[in-house]
Specification:
It is built from 14 helices and 2 strands, in the order H-H-E-E-H-H-H-H-H-H-H-H-H-H-H-H. The protein is mainly α. Strand 1 and strand 2 form a beta hairpin. Helix 3 crosses helix 6, helix 3 runs parallel beside helix 9 and helix 5 runs parallel beside helix 14.
C-alpha cells in the first residue's frame, strides 16, 4: 500500500484540492448508487426469508466453508465468512476514508471538524438513552449501541434522490457526521462488545502491523504484498477475542496519505477508490442479503422482543434527529461553532433526519449484542422500521427544502 512508480509527468498532476474534490465526488457517486443496491438486497432478503423457500435462506448461510492450508484446516459457516471476513474490507474502506478525511478533508482542521463531531456525539448519546429508557434491564440493555450508527450508503443515496438543489456543504456535513459515527461505532465495538481478551492475539496482530509498515518503508507498492500482513492482523484479532473486522480499520488508518512524488496519487486514495466499488456494490449487498432476512412467520412482538423493536426504531427515527439537531444548536448557540455557508437550520434538520437511517453498522452491532435469536430478530426489525421511517421523513422534508432552494429570492 505504498507507491507504485507511474508514468512521470508533473505537468499533468492534479492539485491536492482538485484531487480531494474528485475523490469526494467519486465517493458520493458510489455511495448514492450503492444505497439503491443495498435497499434492493435488503428487500430480497426479507422476501426470501418469508417465502415458501424460507428454509433455504438459513441453510445457505449455515453452509460450512473450509479453509485449508496443508495440514491446517479452518471451517466456519458461510455467515462467518461474510460477517467476519468480507466485512473486513468494508471496515478497511472506512479506515481509509477516516485517514483521508483527517489528512485533507472535513476532519483535517479542528474548527471544521468540531461541529460534525459534536453533532455526531449528540446523535449517539440521545438514541442510546432512548433505547435504554425501554430496555434498561439485563439482557436487553446490551443492545444500547444498535441505534447509534448512521448508514453512509443509505443516507447519501437518499440525499442524492433530492437532486442538486441541496447545497454541497450539507452533503459534506452529512458525510463528515456519518464518518465520525463510524469512528464512534468502531470504538464502541472495541470497548463494549469484546470480552475474554487474549494478549497473545494482540502480539500476532502487532506483528502484522509491523510487517505492513516495514513494506511501506521499503517502498513496496503492490497491494498483493500486503495480503499476508493483513491476514496476520485479522487472525491476531480473532485470536485475541476482538472482532476481526476491526483489523480493516487498523490497516486503513496506517495506509499512507502522502506519496513520495507529487505526480503519484496517494495510496490511501488509490486503494480506497479501487476497493470502494467492490465494497459498495458487492460486499455490503451480500451482507444485507445474509442478515436482513427477518422472518415474520410466527413472530410475536411480545415481552422482551417488543421493547427491543420499539426502542431501536424510536431511537433511530426520533433520537437521531433530536441528538444531531440539539447538539448542533447548542454548539452554535454557545458560540463554539458556526454553520458553514449555505447550511441553514432547515438543512441541519434534513441531516438529522437522514442520520436516523441505520442499517449496515446497526445490524452488525445487533449481531454482536444479542445471541438470542428472538431478540436479534426484534432488533433487526427495529432497525428496518426506524430506517424506513427516517427515509420517509427525510424525503418529505428534503423535497420541501429542495423546492424552497429552487425558488428565486
Amino acid at each position: 500500500m505504498n507507491d507504485q512508480l507511474p508514468s512521470r509527468n508533473p505537468l499533468k498532476s492534479q492539485s491536492l484540492a482538485e484531487r480531494a474534490l474528485a475523490t469526494l465526488q467519486h465517493f458520493l457517486h458510489v455511495e448514492a448508487i450503492s444505497g439503491i443496491v443495498l435497499l434492493a438486497a435488503a428487500a430480497a432478503a426479507l422476501l426470501w426469508a418469508n417465502s415458501p423457500l424460507a428454509h433455504s435462506y438459513h441453510d445457505v448461510w449455515n453452509l460450512t466453508i473450509p479453509l485449508r492450508l496443508g495440514a491446517f484446516a479452518f471451517e466456519r459457516p458461510l455467515h462467518f465468512w461474510i460477517n467476519d471476513a468480507l466485512m473486513t474490507m468494508f471496515f478497511l474502506v472506512v479506515g481509509m476514508e477516516i485517514r483521508r478525511e483527517i489528512h485533507e478533508g472535513a476532519l483535517s482542521r479542528f474548527d471544521q471538524a468540531i461541529l460534525p463531531v459534536l453533532a455526531a456525539f449528540g446523535g449517539v448519546v440521545v438514541p442510546a438513552l432512548i433505547y435504554l429508557s425501554f430496555n434498561a434491564v439485563p439482557g436487553r440493555g446490551h443492545g444500547w449501541a444498535i441505534p447509534t450508527a448512521t448508514d453512509i450508503a443509505f443516507a447519501v443515496g437518499v440525499l442524492a434522490l433530492l437532486g442538486k438543489s441541496i447545497p454541497g456543504n450539507i452533503r459534506v456535513f452529512l458525510l463528515a457526521l456519518a464518518i465520525i459515527d463510524d469512528i464512534i461505532a468502531v470504538l464502541i465495538i472495541a470497548l463494549f462488545y469484546t470480552s475474554g481478551l487474549d494478549p497473545s492475539g494482540f502480539a500476532v496482530a502487532a506483528l502484522g502491523v509491523v510487517m505492513a509498515l516495514g513494506f511501506q518503508r521499503l517502498g513496496i507498492g503492490s497491494a498483493y504484498a500486503y495480503v499476508v500482513p493483513a491476514f496476520i492482523v485479522w487472525a491476531g484479532f480473532l485470536m485475541a477475542g476482538v472482532h476481526p473486522t476491526l483489523a480493516g480499520v487498523v490497516l486503513g488508518l496506517i495506509t499512507p496519505a502522502r506519496s513520495r512524488h507529487p505526480w503519484i496519487v496517494p495510496p490511501v486514495i488509490r486503494v480506497e477508490m479501487a476497493l470502494h466499488p467492490w465494497v459498495a456494490y458487492a460486499i455490503m449487498p451480500v451482507f444485507a442479503l445474509a442478515n436482513a432476512g427477518v422472518s415474520f412467520k410466527g413472530m410475536e412482538l411480545s415481552g422482551d422482543a417488543q421493547f427491543v423493536t420499539l426502542g431501536v426504531a424510536l431511537a433511530l427515527c426520533a433520537g437521531k434527529p433530536v441528538g444531531v439537531i440539539g447538539a448542533t444548536w447548542l454548539a452554535v448557540r454557545t458560540g463554539w461553532c458556526r454553520l458553514a455557508p449555505d447550511v441553514s437550520w432547515s438543512g441541519v434538520c434534513l441531516v438529522g433526519l437522514l442520520a436516523g437511517i441505520g442499517f449496515t453498522m446497526s445490524i452488525f452491532i445487533a449481531m454482536l449484542a444479542f445471541s438470542d435469536d428472538k431478540l436479534l430478530d426484534a432488533a433487526k426489525l427495529g432497525v428496518l422500521f426506524g430506517s424506513l421511517i427516517s427515509v420517509t421523513l427525510g424525503l418529505g422534508w428534503g423535497a420541501e427544502y429542495a423546492q424552497r432552494q429552487r425558488k428565486p429570492n
